[in-house]
């Protein structure tokens, strides 16, 4: 692992794109070689093209990079991170994979394709085996690996250690941050001092993605897990951090204390990955935690915090939606791929 | 109904007390004869004693009333509304009932007493029969009638028309407004740009009160309804309006359209009560409604709005927590009592 | 004044347009005959075309009106209210005036034209005389009358009673509500838990419009008043209500008590106009008032509240930006025109 | 400077106290030896006593420290930082100074004492000379040094480089964050979706403190600077970061460009102090900056950002109120004292 890998960011100027730049600026394995964005931004310095909206300052290393078009020919990189809109992502990501690039995508375009891994490293690292299937099927030198929707990631990470009790039924009510919709996504008049009980397409993703994530890879395909998810998704006036109230029905009917212990014992063995937090699941025992404002930055935004584990089994999950739920998720996927020799 | 009834408000200066004053200022049947509050306020004009915090202007009729102590001897009224804290309410409300007053209470002190009605007029008006039991038991000339917790009221009102399908299981995630905790209840640093997934004592009330409300009065006691409620309660940065995501399991497994029709058909026959809204349950068919800011004032804050009725059965309920969920609830109870001859 | 005047609303679906509909729905003199909006909305019912965002419910009378294109030929009205964007307003409003309509405009297009009145009825009703000049100049049967920018209106109304002391210098820092930018104007990520110290073009308007408003009409033109205004404009996370901190330098150096008395004594004699509030300027003596949330609805949103009158002279002004500062301002202008025989 | 200095924090559990702990946890010169707080907290671990409310995680080093009473006898430290309420601070801080401690205080109790330095290191480091006067006067072995009110600090830092142009008159409108009032200071119902145009005692401090700060120390006392400050202070729904709109009248009438250059040229020569930022004043040239959410963490919260420098001279100042405006201010004062040999 002596030399660094050249990486590009596709859609580098948007809300998730900025999180990629923040995460990669001082990465020990990856080095930004290209920041790509659509027409208007290309040709300008990143400093000018990106309307930087994070509380951290824009990394100096990125500020003077000239933004290039989103085009495999313009970009010299072994690995690209995609923060593209889903409709646009389909063609573009295929192009990069065909051109030999590894694509770690936060977009939704390929998540449901049978030969594309939908992955959370702590949950289903073995699904990386799908890459060989994908290359065979499509004749690509590169490949595409995706991470789930931000809301899915938070609670699915906590379902993994509960698999031992026999998952049967998950009911989830989400309270989601505005950054999940992108910078221009939600007008202030829509959400200030309000709750909007609807997020287009979200419940469908939240109900289907966990089944693939927790499914079994048999060497050629993923057999979906068999349990039911029912979701109600809501937008709240919070900048970052999705909070989720969960009810989890399990065959073995564990006690709250057994569930708590399962979270504490959870060790995915990924401590060699640079952005893997010390505790991917943090258990909070205070009665009123986790909270978005206080817990979203735990583990540099990569830890998911759980609390209020009660009979039912009910509990609260909270994680940073644009870090653990988006850019950080893709980066962690890429770290695992690097470690496993796919780069 | 020619002459008006003299009414007092106990705890008139607080957040719910102000809503009582707002609701009663121009009431056709009731006339404010006394505004009562604790030590410091007594003796001052209401204008000076109450730190008025509503967007409506303080009613002129109330502004110059001298606030009196919370004491049955100081108050000349046939009916008192209680916005007292629960611990303090127990002794005080008993005193008024003993002294011959009808007490319509928003406090929690007597809600679980077997001989005290816990009532929503559209849901269980027949429970008023408990008043005779109460008077027999306690030797009171007056009586106490209570309304439920604000969160309970919203969704229990929508459960009533679903009783016909055989209620089995209710799962509820609430997103509650800050006014529910009173003016000084929640520090701004706790809730600005945040969600707090805990409200002390709330889930217990939400899980037990609906069983009494939907129970059967057999002439001497209320036999609780038999279904299960599981709640997760959360505070969000909204001024007024509790939004609730519900999953309702029913024996007959109705379709969303049947549920919608049951809401539309619901007619409790209370149109003679002055504050009863034309539609106690409003069905919104837009994909993103109801919302606190847009729907909390429907029916002058007395209508509950439902929307997003989906397979599951899942739906969203929203209502104004300090009107339909508190002061308005007590006033409607009192109107029913007046109509039924208890005043 | 026996018969009602037929009125149209141009740009009826937007944030200010909705305020026009709300204000006109039960107006004693005016009756909505046409709701007009741009391409996509035309042909649909107002209920469907307007994404209603006010806490009041959409007036039933308007809900079923079919929206028409913004075109003088499609509209049968003696008076039209314009909530159009300024760039688009120029051509459209001229067309209506030429066609014989009276145009009461909230747009900026004609405010600085020498022969177009820029008017606040309590401040400069005599400027209506410019209409004759305007008709002579332009050969129009109709005419255009404008109201100022929302920020200008609030404080200029309070400057009127201070003219007697010899205005010399006004320094103003505004804290402006998000509704001033229209429904899609400000992304939530820009303003949640934040202040934006810039509003494009606002300071220029705030510094120039008061000079025309407080200028003298000599029968043929308005001689601008001679004093200096220096403004700093800021956006804050408030839904409605612009709050302004003012320093007013005056030749006669009045005391705070003299200023307070001048506000109390201010009586523009317009009580016959239906939407004129009992007190166009309300003086609040509490140390911490006015506040947007508590005072914006005073006088049905048509009163401006002042407070904290201190040595300096410094004071705070607050008013409802989309009522007194926009739709209500135009309606009041139209009421004065009707009263004065221009309709 | 080989050995570290033992420091205590008085009032360590509150909002500013937590910022002290955050700032000192990894300080190269100072080492926390005592965390002190009032009655109820004493004897408990800091982890349990402090309701940690910062987005950063509680420093591990502090979490297990046992909180001690606020009492010079209980505390082994050469230097104490005081985040005490002003009324309580007077007696306590004197006690520590008498006992030989250096007290770096954020409290208001001693700011106006003629023999106590009120200091911003970049503004008036020479005022440290007052310590000798103070010790002579009071017979203390230790001493007290104070930093100004949070609102004062931000703009006074920017006035320093403008002194060369001859300050005459400063007009300031502040938009202040809620954290300035402490955790329980402002109820959420007071400030959500609102502005409160009043902060008790604030304007008096803002108008007087800059005169002492920019005054001349003649070896025995500080001769106040001669210019006028007029302030209007407002609370806005922002967590951290005070934004201030300034008008600065100067004898030499500099151009905006000259003012900008003066800010850029400002170099107080304090780069050896560990928490001194690279640029104590950052000039933002974007039209809409600085903003609290985007700029408060610049320079680890120790830089003040200015922007919108216009004719007038008008400009915007913004800084982190509990870091640069409170805990960080005291720490920087202590660093300067250490460097100058007072520790």
Give a quick precis of the structure:
4 copies of one chain form a homotetramer. Chain A is of the alpha/beta class.
Write up this protein.
With 343 residues, chain A is an alpha/beta fold. Chain A has 2 domains: 159 residues, NAD(P)-binding Rossmann-like Domain (Rossmann fold), CATH 3.40.50; 171 residues, Dihydrodipicolinate Reductase, domain 2 (2-Layer Sandwich), CATH 3.30.360.10. The first copy, chain A, is 28% helix and 21% strand. Chain A contains 11 helices and 13 strands. In chain A, the strands form 3 sheets. The first copy, chain A, has a 6-stranded mixed sheet. In chain A, helix 10 links the parallel strand 11 and strand 12. The radius of gyration of chain A is 19 Å and the shape is globular. The N and C termini of chain A lie close together (11 Å). In chain A, 58% of the residues are buried. The model of chain A has no long low-confidence stretch (mean pLDDT 95). Chains in contact: A-B, A-C, A-D, B-C, B-D, C-D. The interface between A and B is medium-sized, with 34 and 34 residues.
């Amino acid at each position: 692992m002596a030399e660094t890998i050249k990486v590009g960011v596709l859609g580098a100027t948007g809300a998730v794109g900025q999180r990629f730049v923040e995460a990669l600026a001082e990465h020990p394995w990856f080095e930004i070689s290209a920041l790509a964005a659509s027409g208007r931004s290309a040709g300008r310095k990143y400093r000018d093209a990106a309307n930087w909206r994070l509380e951290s300052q824009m990394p100096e290393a990125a500020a003077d990079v000239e933004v290039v078009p989103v085009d495999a020919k313009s970009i010299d990189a072994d690995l690209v991170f995609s923060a593209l809109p889903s409709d646009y992502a389909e063609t573009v990501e295929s192009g990069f994979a065909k051109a030999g690039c590894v694509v770690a995508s936060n977009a939704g375009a390929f998540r449901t394709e049978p030969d594309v891994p939908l992955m959370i490293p702590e949950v289903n690292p073995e699904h990386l085996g799908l890459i060989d299937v994908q290359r065979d099927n499509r004749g690509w030198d590169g490949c595409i690996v995706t991470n789930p929707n931000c809301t899915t990631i938070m609670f699915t990470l906590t379902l993994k250690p509960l698999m031992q009790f026999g998952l049967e039924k998950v009911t989830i009510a989400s309270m989601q941050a505005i950054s999940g919709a992108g910078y221009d996504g939600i007008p202030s008049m829509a959400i200030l001092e309000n709750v909007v009980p609807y997020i287009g397409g979200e419940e469908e993703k939240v109900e289907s993605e966990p089944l693939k994530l927790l499914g079994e890879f048999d060497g050629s395909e993923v057999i979906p897990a068999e349990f039911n998810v029912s979701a109600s998704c809501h937008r709240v006036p919070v900048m970052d951090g999705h909070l989720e109230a969960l009810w989890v029905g399990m065959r073995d009917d564990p006690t709250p204390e057994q569930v708590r212990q399962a979270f504490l014992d959870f060790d995915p063995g990924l401590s060699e990955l640079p952005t893997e937090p010390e505790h991917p699941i943090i258990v909070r025992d205070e009665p009123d935690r986790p909270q978005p404002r206080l817990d979203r930055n735990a583990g540099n935004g990569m830890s998911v915090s759980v609390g209020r584990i009660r009979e039912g089994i009910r509990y609260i999950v909270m994680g940073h939606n644009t870090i653990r739920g988006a850019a950080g998720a893709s980066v962690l996927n890429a770290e695992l791929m690097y470690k496993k020799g796919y780069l």
